[in-house]
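question for whoever is on the cluster today: can someone run the full assembly for these? two chains, 586 residues total. i dont have access anymore since they changed the login thing
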Amino acid sequence: MMQYKTVSEIHDAFDRGETTPSALTQKFLDRLKKSDHNAFLTAIDDRALGQAKAADEVIRTNGGKVPRAKMPLLGVPMGIKDALCIDGVRTTCGSKMLENYIPPYTATAVARLEAAGVISVGKLNMDEFAMGSSNENSAFGPVLHPTHRDRVPGGSSGGSSTAVAADLCFAALGSDTGGSIRLPASFCGVVGFKPTYGRVSRFGLVAFASSLDQIGPLTHSVEDAALIAEVMGGFDPKDSTSNPASIQGLAAEAKKQIEVKGLRIGIPKQYFIDGIQAEVREAIESTLAELTRRGAKLVPIDLPHTKYAVSTYYVVAVSEASSNLSRMDGIRFGVRPKEAMEADSPTEFYKRVRKNFGPEVKRRIILGTFALSSGYFDAYYTKACQVRRLIRQDFENAFQQVDLIATPVSATTAFKAGDKAKDPLQMYLTDIFTIPASLAGLPGISVPCGQDQAGLPIGMQILGPRMEDVRVLQAANLIERIHGGKA
Amino acid sequence: MVEVNEALIRKVAELARLECSDAEVSEYVRSVGDVLGYVAQLEEVDTKGVEPMTHGVDFVLRARADVAEAPKFTADGKPKVLSAAPEVLYDGYKVPQVL
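^ ran it for u. tokens below:
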């Protein structure tokens, strides 16, 4: 186990001279290379060690102390989901299609983290183009669960959750389109935070479904999740959906104790359904009972359109994906096999290139192309967009009565590898509790709240109104304290 | 509700420029059929007069000024953007012949 639980503890250790950015980086590089979890697709040795050396120098020239205000993440080794571009570093998005893609620029989120001192130690495995809930869809093989090897780590940011839980990097970036940060965080027992849509620039994130995609951190602690979100978040002119509001002060605010007395926590009946694993229900309910004991009020709420969320999502997300992935054409992006150049028509050329998509990606492109096709557009795409608004209105109505909403992240703990791989619809339904907040653009977090009898982690989801990221983080902080500290 | 059969899958795959083997087509008839069968539940929602929500944000998407950034070059003086090209010929993207 890693001896440091937070960035602040790492910085204390640097200040004491107990370790250095270079030593810590080398330690993680050694660990990630020795690991057989298949969590990393690329180790970034030289670049990371160069960054670490520069970090050593910053500390040395600052009188042996970390300049925390200026470089709040100095010397922190992070893994980056392979959907995010780093200049000069292979970025595959878990796909054969981008097997050799070397982006000429760095994603805004990563660039801001590195400017604050983060050391990017490697690129993390993921479901191909972030399409999956179990990390069994990567073209480079599945990621193993950090502790239970027969189980999935969750997806699509499964490399990120396993790497943090197994101490292969200190923290990680993931991306969440329908639950891809919160679900793997829950399955692996770490904190996973999806900020309000638009708070973290998507510039340099390979697009899956642009109206849903959001970058966020996976960490051992809520305080680090807040810190990372603040550093990488805020307005970016390079993302047309970037929210202009300032994110400064998020980490400091998130640390403040939430006023529990009178805190109104919404309990949506649609999320506490039959079929939830008994231990998951117990863990959530006992946490809620403790919150009540401390003065919070549980308020039953109704989110009547919840049952339509998965359907809505699987029309909206696949439609956007089919459009976004059209750029994987062997001209703008994507591998270009030799046989493609021998094709006798552009159509044949594209087909030979697009053979490199895996089966789940092809399935979703087919679904999306269908939903957008002439004759079906209104019945599927327009209809789903209308229901999406109703789902969002459900939340807005609920937040008239409550401050936050608490739910399980998933109906079960991590399931066995192979269990749902052959049944796409069952796999899609795994995200039933995370998808609605994605459709509504709300901030959400998964925070560990117990284990089942097999020792598999259970996550609690806290959702807040748009732009109330602080409130969500403060509540998660409290839950973390109730459960005895950091993962 | 639409009937998902081989002809539909083949037609849509063609629109998406995807080649599918016979085995894939029959698998997609089943799985795409399952998903669309499930999605058909949306028909029961009353959406009369509901404005479709096509974006994740409330504000009008803004465009940034159309100003070119200075081109970036690699250490050996080649334009950096070429690192993303599937094939390169004389400092340029090589594209397939179409005529």
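summary bc i know u wont read the tokens: The longest helix of chain B spans residues 22-39. The beta strands of chain B are 88-89, 92-93.
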